[in-house]
Amino acid sequence: MKIAVASDHGGYKLKERIKEYLKSRGIEVLDLGTDSEESVDYPPFGKACGQAVASGEADRGIVCCGTGIGISIAANKVKGIRCALCTDVEMARLAKQHNNANVLALGGRTTDEEKALKIIAAWLDAKHEGGRHQRRVALLDEM
């Protein structure tokens, strides 16, 4: 599995920790920036991650900004992306099971690292349930 990661300055520290975690699970990481805590705009980073997933360059993506809100909006502008901003383990599990979320958004200033890693684990380990949920995912993808 290959996961694209991207952040702005507000999510940079969390992104770096996420990269370590993913590698410890044997997951290949595609880092799309940013490369420091110097102030940058989040939309290009959310878009880059979304495009990497939508094109098949990466299997899934994780994006981070200060709250996760802005960068999730940016990622969701890419056709075929279902980015879910998750603040707890249950949301992450359901985002995958019900919505087949292919990008996960986290807030670098609002979610501590330990909790973020638990959220990521739940999202990675969950499986899309299909069935009635697949019909809804298809409707999203048609938008």
Describe the structure.
The structure is a single chain. The protein is 48% helix and 17% strand. With 143 residues, it is an alpha/beta fold. It has a 5-stranded parallel beta sheet, sandwiched between helices. Helix 1 links the parallel strand 1 and strand 2. The two termini are 27 Å apart. The mean pLDDT is 97.
Shape, per Cα inertia axes: globular
- Secondary-structure element sequence? EHEHEHEHEHH
Which percent band covers the strand fraction? 15-25%
Number of helices: 6
| pLDDT < 50 runs, ≥5 residues | none
- The count of DSSP E runs of length 2 or more, i.e. the number of strands, is 5
Amount of helix = 40-55%
Average pLDDT level: 97
Largest sheet composition = 5 strands, parallel
Oligomeric state of shown chains: single chain
- Note the gap between the termini: 27 Å
| Alpha-beta content class | alpha/beta
Strand order of the largest sheet: 2-1-3-5-4
Query: From the alpha-carbon coordinates, what is the Rg to the nearest angstrom?
Result: 14 Å
